[in-house]
């Protein structure tokens, strides 16, 4: 069955949800075969390039939403630092540092359901223009939900890519967030696609979902035709409702990535937050299991790996950074 589904995908055909579930049900002893098959699919559709991006937490904390995993929510006492939107010069300095280290994409991320004031939004637009003028980086952003007017403004300055995660399946979403709906998130994705802005959209595993939820998410992303799919692995934060969730075993993380590759053969699929703690010594194996992108450097409220370390890992595997 595995060989049959691999040949199907390599021939340009789409697998069904039922077939994806069959991949989930493969016995543990065949996990490495699954990973190798996903790598073969990745090599055919993507090649050896690894997409590297890094972010800056440009506005931290005080988020009105109650997402169970989030250290920045006002609903939980996590001790995270809160601050207003960073000055343009501070964001530019971080961008130049990232550019010098070798990353290709640089994302400006703000906490909250959306950038509240028009003044903040215009300030971010001007910052993006400056980064484009003074660096070689592709500028990306994650500013929460958007209306059509703001999407048009982002398109007007040549925004490369926008991140807006669905986080989990529609079925499981009510267990993750109650202050906004799944449809709110999907609407923003559709606005962006309508303006031909690349959409970076994925989720977090380890939120209490099952594998069927992960498959459902993957197929929703395929239906929306997103361009880049970040897979985060829960790194539980004390004070949040999921602080006692068990960590996702490394082989399960890799299996999840492989099934996403079978479902989304020609998309960027990247490992992001939580990869260091959850994959540990198997991080390099992810790049041979269907993954072709990494969020590198520090995350929003936790430390990550140095860009130079990730680039060395990429080169050691005979791959190239994009």
Automatic annotation (TrEMBL):
SMART domains, A to Z: BATS, Elp3
- Show the PROSITE patterns listed in the entry: RADICAL_SAM
Under which EC number(s) is this enzyme classified?
A: 2.8.1.6
Which residues make up the binding site for [4Fe-4S] cluster?
63, 67, 70
Top enzyme class of this protein?
A: transferase
- Cofactor(s) the protein requires to work: [2Fe-2S] cluster; [4Fe-4S] cluster
Pfam families membership: BATS, Radical_SAM
Q: How is the cofactor bound?
A: Binds 1 [2Fe-2S] cluster. The cluster is coordinated with 3 cysteines and 1 arginine. Binds 1 [4Fe-4S] cluster. The cluster is coordinated with 3 cysteines and an exchangeable S-adenosyl-L-methionine.
What positions does the domain Radical SAM core occupy?
45-275
Biological process according to GO: biotin biosynthetic process
- GO terms of molecular function: 2 iron, 2 sulfur cluster binding; 4 iron, 4 sulfur cluster binding; biotin synthase activity; iron ion binding
**Organism domain of life:** Bacteria
Q: Which PANTHER family has this protein been placed in? A: BIOTIN SYNTHASE, BIOTIN SYNTHASE, MITOCHONDRIAL
Outline the subunit composition: Homodimer.
Q: Which NCBIfam families match?
A: bioB
Q: What does this protein do?
A: Catalyzes the conversion of dethiobiotin (DTB) to biotin by the insertion of a sulfur atom into dethiobiotin via a radical-based mechanism.
Put simply, this protein is called: Biotin synthase
- To which species is this protein native? Halobacteroides halobius (strain ATCC 35273 / DSM 5150 / MD-1)
